[in-house]
Specification:
about 180 residues, 8 helices, globular
Length: about 180
Amino acid sequence: GSCRAWSVIVTLDNATGAAPDDSLRNVVAACETALAVDPSLVEPRLQIGRTCTTGGQYRQRRGLDPADAVDRALSEATAVLESDPTNLDGLLCAGTAWMLRAEWAQDQAREAGPALDRAVDSLQRAAALHPDQPEPLHLLGNALINRAEDERQKGRDPLPTMEAAVASFERALQHPSAAV
């Protein structure tokens, strides 16, 4: 109910450039209320995770550290994946949060490799477990591009990783739902 509605508002805030802070707090409060009634619910955890990732992206684009939002997104994704390791949305949330952590590290000229590895691992698992979905392949391509850039900055050959990214994008585009 209201947990999902507030999550949509955060997405709209982010898309229009509005600060999502108040909406983010409303999502978390509504979803935590649902979890207080039934801690086994998956959807409120996913809503919190996705919303925190969106809020973290907003912060990162403005040069602000997204760590708190990333930590919360990873916490919620981990809780979902502990109960169902094949949950697509949990894997996507984790992969996106790890990628956000890696991008922030790259922005700050810090080591991004471990976070990139976690992002790629999560998104590869999502793509393997859910071959009927193009979104994991698209996100995996993005993560591989970030990994290739990290390899280039470290003086390693990024070409194999870039080729893997292109292959992932091509597979996503071949999916029937990607047809225009």
